[in-house]
Request: fold
Amino acid sequence: MSVNYDPELINKVFEVTEPVEINAEEIERYCAALGETNPIYTDAAAAKKGPYGGLVAPPSFAVTMRNGRNFFQSVPRFGRGGFDAGKDVEFVAPIRAGDRVTLSSHVKEIYEKTGRSGTMVFVVIRSTLKNQNDEVLAHIDHRFMNR
Amino acid sequence: MSTILDLHSHSEASEDSRAPVEAYLNWIKLRQAERPLDGIVLTEHRQFNRDADYRNLEDKFGTMVLRASEVETTYGHMLVFGVNDEMVARFDFADVRLDAQTLIDEVARMGGIVVPCHPGRPNIGLYEHYQSRPPLENVVAVEALNGGSRKGEDERSAELIAKHGFAATGGSDSHLVSLIGLCATKFSADIKTIDDLVRELKTGNYEPVDFRPRRKTVPHAVAMVTR
Reply:
């Protein structure tokens, strides 16, 4: 397997989603699934008196966004197949109920490594989440393994 | 005076580790009775973390932090100790197909030493490559004990060491905080710097030490054996 690729791929935005509206019910379901009971995520009245002045989503909610509500359509691929090899998330600002979130994604890095099972190529896609006010909410690095 | 060092570990500077160096040192402090380490060597994957400065953490925890690299070669993964500017300029550490013999010889010429790690591991260990290709020259030591070894891997390493007469080291290959120091290397000499470490690795005066907890015997299994 070769890791030849066009270097112009790096840092080039290849997908921008339509805005995804986040509602309070969705945050509530997410919290219920995780067993999250902190009132700043689950109780609108209590959250209003909290540090964010209203209901916000738990930080890890950002990961549910994937690429908007869909999977990426044009991630560079190498070899015959692969899998999702994990995510790193940098939380910048809370996602609030009522936010309309847009994701912009670019190829951050492509690299090779070798392991017990052979040679692998990793593609790291960085998605930046912004709200309707163009505020950055989070950066998500999606790591995909190919072989 | 002897020195016990974990010669193989990865901090969050490696892309597949999430372990902060401070957390490693704190864990060592908490587990000193079980894993009596004097220090660790950070061997980040395919890079040399030249600008990292851990002196404040060393002072805070009283544990030495040295820096090396784990690179990928035509004969598997290898630890490079004593990395300097000349080596970084000579080799692309990100290249996963570095020529092993050239690396060993050139690093030695530039004042360092290369130690093949987890040699018993499939695909990326020396043992498997030695089955089909000529042995490398000028290998002084290999990693005999690796904290990430699966069943049979350390045994294959031991077989290789016995056959070729290599000196033997140990390292945890830790990518997680709680795994630091599970395997290490005990030197008969006092080691305070990376130069001390390189000098001692070349002598062969050391042995791997295993701090991995033994699994408790299952009573039913004992009953089966004694029948």
